[in-house]
Write a structure and sequence with these properties.
alpha+beta, two-stranded parallel sheet, 2 strands, elongated, isomerase, Tautomerase/MIF_sf, isomerase activity
Length: 57
């Protein structure tokens, strides 16, 4: 399982690391595996590219 966050630029590397660690802890707590299965989990935070745009209506 992989969780990917894409945020607007401006967060420190420390903040991003705290977010990924908190996410992995939530996965450990709430995602249960079937007997004999192993959960491989990862998380990543990246800055959105300068080309990012959004639309609201």
């Amino acid at each position: 399982m992989h969780v990917h966050f894409a945020l607007l630029p401006g967060r420190t590397e420390e903040t991003k690391a705290r977010l990924t660690e908190a996410t992995l802890e939530l996965l450990r707590t709430y995602v249960k595996t079937a007997d004999g299965r192993v959960l491989h989990a990862s998380a990543e935070v990246r800055d959105l590219d300068a080309s990012y745009r959004k639309f609201e209506s």
